[in-house]
Amino acid sequence: MRTPVLSSVAAAAAIGLLASGCGGVDDGGGAGGVDTLTLGYFPNITHAPALVGVEEGYFADALGDVELSTQTFNAGPDAINALFSGEIDATFIGPNPAVNGWSQSGGTALRVIAGSTSGGAGLVVREGIDGIEDLPGTTLSTPQLGNTQDVALRWFAEEQGWEVDTEGGGDLSIVPQGNAEIVDAFVLGEIDGAWVPEPHLSRLVDEAGGKVLVDEADLWPETDGAFVTTHLIVNADFLEDNPEIVEDLLRGHIETVDRVNEDPEEAQRATIAHLGALTGSEPDPEVVASAFDNVTFTVDPIAASLRGGAEHAEAVGLLDPVDLEGIYALDPLNGLLSEAGRDEVEGF
Questions:
Q1: What CATH number does residue 84 fall under?
Q2: What keywords is this UniProt entry annotated with (predicted)?
């Protein structure tokens, strides 16, 4: 059973809104009269460049006269729906929802304009599960059906020769639920483990006594363990109509990634503060430090892993075969990198 991001009727209606976009229009605004850019992101460590960039004002400074508006999400399909409906202009997001959105729109709705994060995801299990052979018969969670970690777990099961379905049946019971609910369910013994991103992976280990059974990096030997966990996508019409604004957004993104890598301790402080503002509770600094150790922040989109992820989604029945040619629009990013004397990145 293939699971669409939107119903066909809703998708058609939402895609129809793309021409207008969501950026606010005002004669005194930025390029093309747009005076607002609405940026989406998630309260996860794998979205740290977004958290830091918003908290420290790097995006707002780079956008100049164009106001930055933000919206947060729990998992990728929700952000794609918001991009389709015109609620947001750009968003940090995982690879599989981006591919789903590309497929749903026939390659018209979005473009990947930069990488953000690699790594920081895997399978954490309870005590008593000592090897992969112990997993059949267990109940495992992912953040949402069809999101990046959900596809990773289902692909992993497929590789082991196990049967799973979208109703929680099969050799493994896969039960999607929100990241916060996953931690609670694990503590209560309602699930045996979960395939999750940071900081929830570190929370399950440091706070709930779990252990990492599968580091997703080990499943990507063809890219030396690198795989896209988060990248930056933009509404395709917004990019076409407002290239200078998108370039400014990328300036802020490059600066943020550089700052995060140059001063990880300060980046962790900003991340903790911003997560506290978003959720009402600041995460444990030790958990955040552990999570930062498990991820790599980079503007390289690691394109080979995007194609691999799409193939995995197809193999587990969550995506019809899709042609990804044209999904990347890296010229603005590469122009900025070239200006700075830095290596350009590759798409396909």
A1: 3.40.190.10
A2: Cell inner membrane, Cell membrane, Membrane, Signal, Transport
Q: What is the pTM of this model?
A: 0.86
Q: Which residue, 149, 120, 98, is CA-closest to 48? A: 120
The whole domain housing 157 covers: 121-223
Q: Residue 347 falls within a domain, yes or no? A: no
Angle between helices 95-104 and 76-85 (to 10 degrees): 40
Tens of pLDDT along the chain (348 residues) come to: 343 344 333 444 444 444 444 565 544 445 457 899 999 999 889 999 999 999 999 999 999 999 999 999 977 888 999 999 889 999 999 898 899 899 999 999 999 999 999 999 999 999 999 999 999 999 999 988 988 899 999 999 999 999 999 999 999 999 999 888 999 999 999 999 999 998 899 999 999 999 999 999 999 999 999 999 999 999 999 999 999 999 999 999 999 999 999 999 999 999 999 999 999 999 999 999 999 999 999 999 999 999 999 999 999 999 899 999 999 999 999 999 999 999 999 999
Q: Which of 171, 193, 223 is the last residue of a domain?
A: 223
What's the number of domains the chain is made of?
A: 2
Where is the domain boundary, 223, 247, 274? 223
